[in-house]
Amino acid sequence: MRAINMPRDGLPVTTARDMARDDSIGQQFTLKTEVVVVGSGAGGAMTAYELAKAGRQVLVLEAGRYHPSSLFTEHLGDTMTDVYRDQAAQFNTTADVLFAEGACVGGSTVIGACVMQMPPDSLLRRWETELGLSNLSPARFKPLLDEVGVEQYLHLNEAHEINTTAHKVIQGCERMGFSWKPVSRNVRQCALTGHCLAGCPSDRKMSALVTHLPWAVAHGARVMADTEVTRVLISNGRAYGVEAVVRDPNTRRKIADLRVEAEVVVAAGGAIQTPLLLQRSQVPDPSGQVGKNMAVQPFVQVLARFKEELHGFRGALVGVEIDHFLEKEGYMFFSALAEPEQLMIQGNQGAGADHIRFMKSYKHLAGLNAFAIDEGRGEVTWKGGLEDGRKVISWNPSRKEFEKLKHGASLAARVFFAAGAEEVFIPSFQQISATSVFDLDPALDEISYGVRGLYSLRINSFSAHGTCRMGVDRYQAVANARGEVYDVKGLFIADASLIPEPMPSAPHWTVQALAKQVAQGINERSRELFLS
Questions:
Q1: Under a CB-based contact definition with an 8 Å cutoff, are residues 345 and 243 in contact?
Q2: pTM to 2 decimals?
Q3: CA 28 to CA 255: how far, in whole Å?
Q4: Segment 217-222 mean pLDDT
Q5: Domain extents in the chain
Q6: Among 188, 184, 200, residue whose Cα is nearest residue 68
Q7: Side by side, which strands form the sheet with 238-247?
Q8: pLDDT band at 5; cut points 50, 70, 90
Q9: DSSP state, residue 280
């Protein structure tokens, strides 16, 4: 692909500030376009690029703010306030599972850890043969994955420098006989500062903010930030636009009501926001599956204290993965030491004297994230009216999922003890640690499932998917194999909510390939979908 050079702060994004004149507050605006894309993350940006490149008029609406790279400070506290959904406090109904999500131009790609994993061929074959999704067969889907990953615009590299946290994981794996490998990340010449979750100020992370969105804009696409789409407009079984509210990102004051008339609507807000939009829009749901089947790839972070100073927060945030248990047991492990702000949200740091002791040990810590493939039983629901309603995220671990996460934490702890750790901190709501592998099982036994696994393990999720799943049966799926919502012509989905079932790999790469496939399908049906 030919490189398209954009100025550092060159995205011509329309923001609430641009619209906030004294005489415009409370006004209503109407815009017309061929395609309106709701969301600007991995799926939305890819869709916008593919359609704009084909000559379509594209308008991207993003509920979050525009935060150019030059404003990132690498202080996670600042970033959480500005570009994380709910200021990094998006929890389930019981407030014990954190769902981290970006809320900015570029979406979660801006705050992600850059991990890129292909879905295994065995999974694609299952989707083809057992689910009937021939469009996801290895023969048809792998070339799209290759296009995303190899055409020089995601710069997939093996980690060229492994930090001390990753080295401890490697040492433990070598002694335990576990296989490991460097993580593939979409980073171009990483600066190795370790602040991926706080946004990349050097444009080296190949997020949508610096790749597909600028490319889409270069082909004529327009981008609006601070614009929350409240519902999709539908008439006679066809989508014909959206309604949105423009708000000041700092005060949340309404600046204007916006109506966009379009011939094609693409929902790409992610696996949490997209089903909420469909529910608010009262989209026909013959399957009853909108918002259901949410897989979350739950994970716990195991911290280990070593005698020597590691400064494990320096260097590439995610360096290596343990792939030894993936195929047979469904576990993923990634080396990473969370920043203090992230640990504070998780509650790991304690308070008072405990907090001081913990922070004194921080430079001696290493971290390993233990992911388990869940059962896809989560649900996202919109309660109430368009503007006064609220989202409800329902996911708590089943006993089986709890035991899997607990076993994953046990494996991670054993890796660190094999690497020479003096103490391993158990990721629970209780303050539990073990000082040797012989103390580990008794320490883990202190964590009980209790009532629905509430407030047991400290669980996080970065990768929800499956809430508007793709399928060939209209009574079992929300969208067809083209990504078009059943019973609503011209309404497409292009994000992680399309993924048909829980998957054992980071979904970023899959989402981009799915979005590319959806966009190509729209282009192929241009005579049917567009007036000109």
A1: no
A2: 0.94
A3: 9
A4: 97
A5: 13-87+100-114+146-153+197-284+480-527, 160-186+299-373+398-456
A6: 200
A7: 27-32, 254-261, 238-247, 227-235
A8: very low
A9: H
Give CA–CA dist 283/404, Å, rounded: 36
Q: Which two tokens stand for residue 503?
A: 């998957």
Residue 452 has pLDDT above 70, yes or no: yes
- When pLDDT is averaged across residues 414-420 and rounded to a whole number, the result is 98
360, burial (CB in 10 Å: exposed 0-12, middle 13-18, buried 19+)? exposed
CA gap 295, 257 in Å, rounded: 34
Structure letter (DSSP) for residue 428: B
Sign of CA dihedral 331, 334, 337, 341: negative
pLDDT at 285 over 70: yes
Rounded to whole angstroms, the Cα distance separating 300 from 302 reads 6
Instruction: Cite the beta strand spans of 106-226 per DSSP E.
Output: 156-158, 180-182, 184-186, 222-224
The pLDDT of residue 506: 94
Per-residue confidence (pLDDT) for residue 29, from 0 to 100: 92
CATH of the domain spanning 160-186+299-373+398-456: 3.30.410
CATH code: domain 13-87+100-114+146-153+197-284+480-527 is 3.50.50.60
Contact status, residue 404 vs residue 502, Cβ threshold 8 Å:
no
Which of the 8 DSSP states describes residue 470? B
